[in-house]
Design brief:
Layout (H helix, E strand, L loop, with lengths): L7 H13 L6 H31 L7 H16 L5 E6 L4 E6 L1
Antiparallel strand pairs: 1-2
């Protein structure tokens, strides 16, 4: 993939955790596992990113600012598998913070 790479520090941490669990992989085997994980996570991440971009393109231009921001909050909740999210934006017209949550 190229976008997600595990550095040496991560690699050593993973190797140590596996050794603690009694799994002793050779350097080549561990590298292969890491490459598989990178590819799978990278593929999932790109799919999620495409889905989010498609949702942005689907936003109806007749939506109010509030409706758009509520859609953004719902999208963030879905993307992060979260239960609650909020967005705080400074509204210069209102001279204060504007809050949106779900």
């Amino acid at each position: 993939m190229g976008t997600l790479r595990i550095n040496r520090e991560h690699l050593e941490s993973i190797r140590f955790c596996l050794l603690e669990k009694g799994v002793n992989l050779s350097g080549e085997e561990l590298d292969e596992v890491i490459h598989l994980i990178e590819d799978e996570i990278g593929y999932w991440y790109i799919n999620q990113l495409i889905t989010q971009v498609e949702k942005i393109f689907e936003i109806d231009s007749s939506f109010t600012e509030s409706e758009i921001l509520q859609l953004v909050v719902r999208t963030i909740l879905e993307y992060l598998c979260a239960e609650v999210a909020s967005i705080k934006i400074y509204g210069p017209e209102k001279k204060g913070m504007v809050f949106y949550w779900s």
